[in-house]
Amino acid sequence: MRVEEVELPGVGHKFTIKVQSGDEIVIVVHHSGRRQVLYYEAGGGEEPAAALDLTDEEARELGAILGGVLFHPELTAAATMRVGEQAIDWIAVPPRLAGQRLADLQVPEGVHILAVCRHETLLPNPAADTRLEPGDMLVVAGPRRAVDTLRTQLKA
Amino acid sequence: MHPAILQFTLATALLALGAVLAWHLRLAPLPIYLLTGLLAAPLVNLELLQPLPDLGLLLVLFSVGLEFGPERWAALSGKAIRAGIWDALALPMGWGLGLLLGLDWRAALLLGGALYVSSSAIIARLIVDFKRAAYPESETVLGVLVFEDLVIAAVLAVTAGRAGGPALLASLVLVGAYLAGAYLAGPRLSRWLARLPSEPLLLLGAAFTVATAELFHRAGASEGIGAFLAGTVVASIGLRERLEPLLGPLRDLAAAMFFLAVGASAARLLQGIQPLAIALVPAALLVKLPLNYWSGAATGLGVRGRLLTMLYLIPRGEFTLVLGTLALQAGETLVAQTAVLLVLVSVPVGALAIQLGPRLTRRFRGRRAVPARVMSIELAGQAGRRPERFWARR
C-alpha cells in the first residue's frame, strides 16, 4: 500500500492511497474538519466510481470502525452488556473447574446460566448435569451485582 | 447611538439577504456580495463603515500570505513550477499591452499585474464550496496560485509608492528586516507564542497584521504587501494552524464588507468609464485561457483537467484590486477602471465556470488505456480442461 500526502494551500491536506487491487482512494481533510473521499476503480478512467462527503464526527466514527476500535469482529475477551440493573455477561471458565457439573458451581442467587459457548458452538439452556470442559465460556444473566460476584468467584 | 451602527446594521442585513439568496440558488456568495454593493450603492455610506472594508482586504491578504506564501514554495513540485511559468507569461503580455497603449512602464506593469493575478482567496473558497478539492486539477490550480502570489508580491514591491526610488528601497529594506527578524527570533518567539491561550493570540495576530500594513503605508510602500508579508511571517514561525481558525470568522465578516464596498465604489468609479477599459476586460480573460490550458498540460492532466484548470483560474480578486488602488492613487484611471471592472466581471463568470465546468467538460473525460480486468477461474474436478476465462466488462 502506498500513501502520498500533498498540501492543498487554503484547503487542507490530500492523501492518495493506492490499495492492493489497484483501486485508488483520495481523501481530502479540509481545514474546517470536513472530509472528502473519492474512490477510483482500477482501469475505471478519470471519473471516480464513488464520492463521499463526511463531517468531522462521521469521519472519526468511520475511522474507528475501520480500525477495529468500536466493533470487534471476533469476541477476543469477555464482554458485558448492561441494561439498567440487569447484565448479560460472557465469563471464561478457568481450567481448574473442568470436569465439574454446572450444578456444582456456586452460582449467586438470581443469576441464570443462559448458555455454554464451546468450540464455536452454543449450547443453549444447558442442563444442570452438563460437564464443563477447558476453554468453555458461560453466558450468564442476572442482577448486575450478582453477575459481578460470579465473575470474581470464577477468576479467583 | 453612533450613526455607524445603523450603517453596519444595514450592510450586514443586505449581505445576509444576499447570502441567503445565494444559498437558495446554489450560487457562490462572493459575486452576490459584489452585486449587492453595486445595487445598494446609494444606500451605504462607506465612510461610516470603515475600518471594516479596509480591514477585510488586509485580513484577506494576510490569509493569502499565510496559506499561499513563500512557505509553500518548498512543497511545490517541478511540474507545478512549470505550470506557474506558463501562467506567468500573462504578466509580460499585459505589460506589453499597457506599453502599446501608451502608458508609462509603471502603469503598464500595474495593468499587467491586474490582468495576470487570479484570486487565491476566491478560488480556494470556490473549490471548497463546490467540492472539487479532491480532484487532480485543484492541486495544479492551487500550485499555480502559490506561484502567482509570489510574482505579484515582487510586482507590488517594484511598483508601489508614490515617490518612486526611495519608496522601493524602503519596502525592500522592510521586507528584508521582517524576514531576517522571523528567521533569527522565530524559534524563540514561536515557543513563547505556543504557550499563549487563544484570545491573546487572536489580538496579537490582528495587531501585528494591521501594524505591519500601517508601517508599509507610512514608508510609502503598499499596505497590501505589508499584510501579505505579515501572513508569511506568521506561517514561517509555525502558527498557521492556530491563527487560521481564530482569524477566520473575523476575516469572513470583514471581507464580506470589503466586497460590498468594492461593489458600491465601483458604481461611482465606473461612471464615465472609458470604452478602452471595457475592451481590456475580455482581452484579459482571453489571454489567460490558452496559457492555463498549457499549465494544466505541464502537470500531466488530461484534456478535461486542462480545460478545468483554465476555467478555475478565471476569478481575479484581492491583488487585482490592490493594484487598481495603487493605479488610482497614481492618477491612472484607465488601469483602475479596468481592474475594478475585471473583478466585477470575472468573479461571477469564474464562479459559474467552477460550478458548471465539471458538468460541461464531461465529454472530455479521459479513457485510460487499461484493458478490462481478466479473471481466470479453474474449475475444481475438471483437471486437464483449459481454464475458463470470464471477461468482466464494465
Characterise the protein shown here.
- The complex is a heterodimer of chains A (156) and B (394).
- Chain A is mostly beta strands.
- In chain A, 15% of the residues lie in helices and 39% in strands.
- Chain A contains two helices and ten strands.
- In chain A, the strands form two sheets. Chain A has a five-stranded antiparallel β-sheet. A five-stranded antiparallel β-sheet of chain A has the order 6-7-10-8-9.
- In chain A, β1 (2-8) and β2 form a beta hairpin.
- The longest helix of chain A is centred in the last third of the chain and has 12 residues, at 144-155.
- The model of chain A has no long low-confidence stretch (mean pLDDT 83).
- Chain B is an all-alpha fold and 394 residues long.
- Helices cover 74% and strands 2% of the residues of chain B.
- Chain B has a two-stranded antiparallel ribbon with strand order 1-2.
- Chain B starts with a helix and ends with a strand.
- Mean pLDDT of chain B is 83; it is low at 368-394.
- Classes of the chains: A mainly beta (156), B mainly alpha (394).
- The A-B interface holds A 6-12, 14, 26-28, 30-32, 36-38, 41-47, 51, 53 and B 63, 67-68, 72, 75, 120-121, 124-125, 127-128, 131, 133-135, 138-139, 142, 145-146, 244-245, 302, 304-305, 365-368, 370-373, 394.
SSE order of chain A, as H and E? EEEEEHEEEEEH
User: How many DSSP H or I helices of chain B?
Assistant: 17
Measured between the Cα atoms of the first and last residue of chain B, the distance is: 69 Å
Q: Characterize the largest beta sheet of chain A: strand count, sense, and whether it forms a barrel.
A: 5 strands, antiparallel
Largest interface: A-B, 26 and 34 residues
Topology, number of strands of chain A: 10
Number of helices of chain A: 2
Query: How much strand of chain B?
Result: under 5%
Strand order of the largest sheet of chain A: 1-2-3-4-5
Q: Kindly name the structural category of chain B.
A: mainly alpha
Oligomeric state, counting identical vs distinct chains: heterodimer
**Radius of gyration of CA atoms of chain B, rounded to a whole number:** 24 Å
Largest sheet of chain B: 2 strands, antiparallel
In terms of structural class, how would the helical and strand content of chain A be classed? mainly beta
Flag low-confidence runs of chain A. none
Strand content of chain A: 35-45%
| Record field, number of beta strands of chain B | 2
The helix fraction of chain B, in percent, is over 70%
| Element order of chain B: H for helix, E for strand | HHHHHHHHHHHHHHHHHEE
In order across it, which strands form the biggest sheet of chain B?
1-2
Bin the helical content of chain A: 10-25%
